[in-house]
Amino acid sequence: xxxxxxxxxxxxxxxxxxxxxxxxxxxxxxxxxxxxxxxxxxxxxxxxxxxxxxxxxxxxxxxxxxxxxxxxxxxxxxxxxxxxxxxxxxxxxxxxxxxxxxxxxxxxxxxxxxxxxxxxxxxxxxxxxxxxxxxxxxxxxxxxxxxxxxxxxxxxxxxxxxxxxxxxxxxxxxxxxxxxxxxxxxxxxxxxxxxxxxxxxxxxxxxxxxxxxxxxxxxxxxxxxxxxxxxxxxxxxxxxxxxxxxxxxxxxxxxxxxxxxxxxxxxxxxxxxxxxxxxxxxxxxxxxxxxxxxxxxxxxxxxxxxxxxxxxxxxxxxxxxxxxxxxxxxxxxxxxxxxxxxxxxxxxxxxxxxxxxxxxxxxxxxxxxxxxxxxxxxxxxxxxxxxxxxxxxxxxxxxxxxxxxxxxxxxxxxxxxxxxxxxxxxxxxxxxxxxxxxxxxxxxxxxxxxxxxxxxxxxxxxxxxxxxxxxxxxxxxxxxxxxxxxxxxxxxxxxxxxxxxxxxxxxxxx
Length: 510
Description:
11 helices, 54% helix, alpha+beta
């Protein structure tokens, strides 16, 4: 299934094909699934080895104990022969049945060779398989010693003859025997190690075969369980990220989270959230690019229209009418600002404002120009300016005009949208020793709670229905260009926007 998704991805997005093709062979040759299966089998085989080692040691002890018990029975049988002399045929039968070469018994502090070997033998090793009363440390050491002895059987040369000491079986409860054994009595046998090795090899092969079967079954169960819980969801996440990365503008490629409540489910939901935000962001950037192109075209024609209006205003200024002489300078200044703004708009693709050209600007007269441009005061809205006539701001006059114009216009629109009868906008300013602090307050409805988080972000921080948020975003950017900050706080009622324009130090640029 993952391969089909990747193949479809290559066909739908050529730009991601080479990267996906480079990753896919490596993933399919030895990906998470193959690694998981291999590691599961290895770990289960290691567990089986840890089980096999003590098992083979116990098998050796039990096998030798069986030989001790058989030799004990042979010793009892030989003791029952009249005269104590065992015929050669019976002796051979007893030794063959017990699978030993000779039997000796220590009873009542006397050691006696019951069934001697038929020929002289050389002992290559002696082992004591009797249970011993040892402390915990001694028992652990003895256990490791028995394991080492068992493993040594596989590596010793063939044809060895060994001597083994073992404890005879204790009589059952209530059973009376004619040949009682003391606790320190033992049965001693001499036997060839070849049958023991053959039996241990057979037992080891059985354990190996059983271990392989168990490993395969357990590995398959663990593999499919972990594949369903971890590997498949991770492959789904990886495949979706590759698929989404080929065309992140397509919302249909956003992952659909499952209903899991574990870490995989959390990851799926977080991935879906990030992909959704990215799709919205890319769509917004695409719309902004289209809007920028449209604005550039509109701006070109608008600039020509404003140039014509400027020529007409120049002719209008030559008329002797006092009213015309009074308003024509402001009209010409407004047209100049509009033309300059159109020129700046063509450079909007740089995503930043130019360096402000500072001078000492009389704030009160600039505020009056803003009021005249917005027809303030008017019947329903009063503009109250509390600014000293001598106060000057070290700022770019055009930038400062745009800041005040945007903020005051926003206040006017807020008051009008709420149909406030006695609208009031108050502008105050003072020098705080570092620069000029300016505040614009209104008695409108205030800023909605949902708009506070993105208040100074374009297209997301609109404070009214249908607003774009560009006014506040541009004002904040222009204030920042002067080294200041634009703040908002709730009024009672309305909203208050405050910004500072720091004085430029001697030698400081901008």
